[in-house]
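Q: I have three molecules that I believe assemble together. Could you output structure tokens for the complex as a whole instead of separate predictions?
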Amino acid sequence: MTGLLPWLEWAGIAVFALTGALVAARKQMDPFGFALLGTVTGIGGGTLRDVLLGIRPVTWIIDPTAVVICAAVALAAFFTADLFEREDRARAILWADAVGLALFTATGAARALDAGAPAISAVLLGVVTATFGGIIRDILAGDVPLALRRDVYVTASLAGALAFVAVNRWVSPELDDLAGFTTT
Amino acid sequence: MTGLLPWLEWAGIAVFALTGALVAARKQMDPFGFALLGTVTGIGGGTLRDVLLGIRPVTWIIDPTAVVICAAVALAAFFTADLFEREDRARAILWADAVGLALFTATGAARALDAGAPAISAVLLGVVTATFGGIIRDILAGDVPLALRRDVYVTASLAGALAFVAVNRWVSPELDDLAGFTTT
Amino acid sequence: MTGLLPWLEWAGIAVFALTGALVAARKQMDPFGFALLGTVTGIGGGTLRDVLLGIRPVTWIIDPTAVVICAAVALAAFFTADLFEREDRARAILWADAVGLALFTATGAARALDAGAPAISAVLLGVVTATFGGIIRDILAGDVPLALRRDVYVTASLAGALAFVAVNRWVSPELDDLAGFTTT
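A: Yes, here they are, computed for all three components at once.
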């Protein structure tokens, strides 16, 4: 827990939880709807990554910090949602989604390399980590997933993951420390 | 297998399988649709719980009792579905969902505590176990998940899981026997 | 890797990736949409099977051949999609789905038996492997899953899995070699 990686992950979790809460606001849900959609969106990508990598139990069961972050962000969003216009919220979802995507692409690929996955699988796991939370958020809310409506998201994540893994593996291996310090 | 826990789980599996079969009836599916939706609904929540906890392979692969229960309930529902009115079936779905939710909240949290999860994660796994089967039932059937349309379900599950874990951990630890006796 | 099983799996992966790409063509997605839907459809069923069986990490992380096959098929479909009529593509989806279903039913059940699952669980895992990729393809694309609209698919998979497991376990155990040779 001394490295940068968990902090980047928590930041990504917080912004994805915000997108879940904002979708809950659009669907006029109650506080529990906010907490549910926020939490699922925030931890969904990392959970699938852990399951595919065989990390067991998944990270948030051992250390529920991520769940607490999601619930706190979702409730804060519930009590402030009315202060913002509908269009502002829609724009905030797109921006938060993009920021979360960038953070989760890098941290997801880092965790995969750290767990010994080959480069191509690490790229894919970066994309999976970055996109899956938003996909289940949209499916639960009854929308067609944003990742499919705006392919640019997946493309950006794929390009980012390729760059991250390439740098990490062939250009500057000492970046491994990013991941290396943070195991456990 | 000497404790109460597996019986409570089988009861929960049976009532959730019934809700899946009743949704299949509303969608006028054939017997295989009944069996598919019934089984997915009945074992979905426990399967996700096992995967997140890292129990491998998941419980129903080792002991397919749960699958047999689901298939039996779904086929019984298929042959009797026409005896009931459409409104009765809709009401039966709500009631069975509530009963299954209560049973799975408690058994899911108990299994999580039993596997060594921290209290807050056990609460969450109780909610996950209780809600996930119904969520995939509704997604497969093309409906917006009942858990999101009627937040009271998730709220009830959350309250139940909190109460169960609090009693189990701090008030009356001897209740651990409920879970303790039943490991494999 | 000396047996027949991986070749049958790769064939199944390729035809399922084709169905995902053809659905992407119908939804007029860009190349990344083709690659995403193709890959998810091609590896989805085997991934869930691995997770349920507790094979960790899942097969395609260790050996990304399947991912490369999916991406190649999807991109080939993207560049040739315009050569075919809309009706031809719709028919091709149904045929490819049926072929993939048959291949994945057998290979999924074989992998499950190989991992020591009881017969009834192996039947179910054959069905899960064969149907799940197409189900998430349709959910992601915003359609009601084909497996639920055309129950005949699930029925065929169930019958195939029953036949495969019955032959494999009680009639001709030497067929075990099919699975036995291929355990990494």
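A: One point stands out. The interface with chain A takes residues 27, 29-30, 32-33, 36-37, 39, 47, 51, 56-58, 60-62, 64, 67-68, 139-142 of chain C (CB under 8 Å).
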